Amino acid sequence: MPTLRANFHDLTREALRLLTVRWGFSPVHAARLWRYVYLDRIEAWELMTDLPVRYRDRAAAELALTHPEIAVETHSSDGFTRKYLLALADDRRIETVLMRFTGRVTACISSQAGCAMGCVFCATGQMGFTRHLSAGEIVAQALHVNRVLHSLNPGERLRNIVLMGMGEPLHNYDAVMTATEILCDTAGLSLGTKQITLSTVGVVPGIVRLADEGRPIHLAVSLHGATQEERAALVPVAKKWPLDALMEACRYYIAKQQRRIFYEWTLIEGKNDTAENAHAVGRLLHGQDAQVNLIPLNPTAGFAGIPTGQEAARRFQTILAEYNLPSTIRQRRGIDIAAGCGQLANAR
Ligand code: SAH
Ligand code: SF4
Fold first, then answer.
1. What pLDDT does 193 receive?
2. Which of 14, 115, 168, 279 might form a disulfide with 124, Cβ 3.0–4.6 angstroms?
3. pLDDT at res. 348
4. Distance CA 242, CA 160 (A)
5. Rounded-to-integer distance, Cα 175 and Cα 22, Å
6. How many Å apart are CA 116 and CA 128, to the nearest integer?
7. Which residues of the chain have pLDDT under 70?
8. Which residue's CA lies nearest to atom 4 of ligand 2?
9. Which residues are annotated as catalytic?
């Protein structure tokens, strides 16, 4: 029977060191192996010629150094966005998006196959939950984007990661945090923790844990409704983690981390984009160190809403400014290939 090998990318550098020592080899080999994979982008064991053959053989027998296959690749017509449908080892599919706007390269990464949170306007929510991704499967998406960038322009490196793809990252807390540790490892990809933004639907215990653990990544919280009733109509898990508790957790996070929270607000015409809605957001967030990112609704098969137009979105922004709340209107990119916020699914 073939032995089941562990995924190399599930390991932090420290875990690889411990494993190496347990196998009876020097930690120096572990450090060299780590650099081969994360700095030199070498995946073939036989090319790791600085390592003793016995160590290489043992590592190759115990650890799988593979990456997900690209099942489908699509490019947006404006050339800024590429979307990859990746096939995992068990043939589950996830989507990863590469965005290359002037001066900024960002990977939008998935944390789960599907999502259990059921937000009505989101394609991932509409497909339901399949499974959590492992840390290695999350890391592999960043490596994939890095490989693509390297092939396009050898000088180009991945600089920003948003955990805003498929899934709810705080529902898969441990794997996501291990992945961020691997991505930020200074002997590897060396991403700055400030270059990683995690977006949550509002998993209250996860927000508190992030604050308590002092995780230095940026936090975005999806709000969409400024009263409990309005929010729960769009975000079913608001029934489990009500708005009051969410706001309390957010204030705790800001105070403890001394860091601003980004709130996301999907703008749906006639539903949550009126002047009264904007005032309600202003009252709710007034006094917090917060920024609001407004996202005009992207189309999905299972939700009939219409995106708010530019003029109404700007009016919303003007009202938020009256409450000293800075805001941005997210540019709609990649919509022609269904790579926009909330459009990721694997049903094709
Ligand atoms: N599960 C996390 C992160 C993934 S969704 C979360 O919900 O925050 C990333 C962002 O896209 C969230 O702010 C989400 O509310 C938003 N979004 C989902 N569906 C959308 C749609 N159809 N149009 C615009 N934004 C959408
Ligand atoms: Fe899940 Fe986020 Fe989509 Fe809600 S918006 S269903 S939490 S991925």
1. 83
2. 115
3. 43
4. 31
5. 23
6. 6
7. 1-3, 102, 346-348
8. 119
9. 95, 341
Task: Write the burial class of residue 3 (CB in 10 Å: 0-12 exposed, 13-18 middle, 19+ buried).
Answer: exposed
Q: Are 262 and 218 in contact (CB under 8 A)?
A: yes
Beta strands in 57-141 (DSSP E): 63-64, 69-75, 81-87, 93-101, 104-108, 112-114, 129-132
Extract the tokens encoding 3: 């032995």
> In angstroms, rounded to a whole number, what is the distance separating the alpha carbons of residues 220 and 198?
6
Q: Which two tokens stand for residue 337?
A: 């290939």
CA pair distance 99, 109, nearest whole angstrom: 11
Taking only the tens place, the pLDDT of each residue in 199-227 is 999 999 999 999 999 999 999 999 999 99
Contact between 19 and 11 (Cβ < 8 Å): yes
For residues 325 and 291, the answer to whether their CB atoms sit within 8 Å is yes
Q: Taking phi first (over 0 means left), then psi (-120 to 50 degrees means alpha), and beta for anything else, what does residue 342 get?
A: left
Using the atom order of ligand 2, give the atom closest to the CA of residue 118: 6
Other residues' Cβ atoms within 10 Å of the Cβ of residue 279: 16
Q: Which amino acid is at 208?
A: V
The first and second tokens of residue 75, run together, are 């490019």
| β-pair partners for 108 | 97, 162
Ligand 2 center to residue 181 CA distance, Å?
24
- Phi, psi (rounded to 5 degrees) for 347: -85, 50
| Nearest residue by C-alpha to atom 8 in ligand 2 | 167
CA distance 196 to 158: 11
